[in-house]
Amino acid sequence: MSPETVAAVGRRMTxxxxxxxxxxRRVITLENAEAIFRSTGQxxxxxxxxxYRSSTIPVVSCGEVVDIVHGPxxxxxxxSGLLGGAVRGRPAAALPRDGEPAPALGPQPKLFATYRxxxxxxxxIGVANVGALTGCA
Length: 137
Known about the structure:
Order of helices and strands: HEHHEEHHH
CATH topology: Replication Terminator Protein, Chain A, domain 2
Number of helices: 6
Strand content: 5-15%
């Protein structure tokens, strides 16, 4: 990405944090989730849903954006300081509970190396996500 693009993304992220938009966690039917992700062209999420073993899916939304829940979620875009810290030049942080300060994280070379190795294996065997790995995609 160009420096201009990075700056524009940073400005937008800061604005979203400053607006403190609500992040809503809810449970929807599998069919509803498929319809949402199909209408937004998110094919990798559709592949994940093919191997999901439940008729309901936990999702999180912030404005128009909807995603599958995979772990803890803050209650609003500005509550954790996570995005604001990342775009305001402070180190990224782990997601804290509401009201708790976000702990700073330093460089994570082993974690990054693990990510890179996983990505390399994914490319080698032609797997983009869990849905493709199971052969159900």
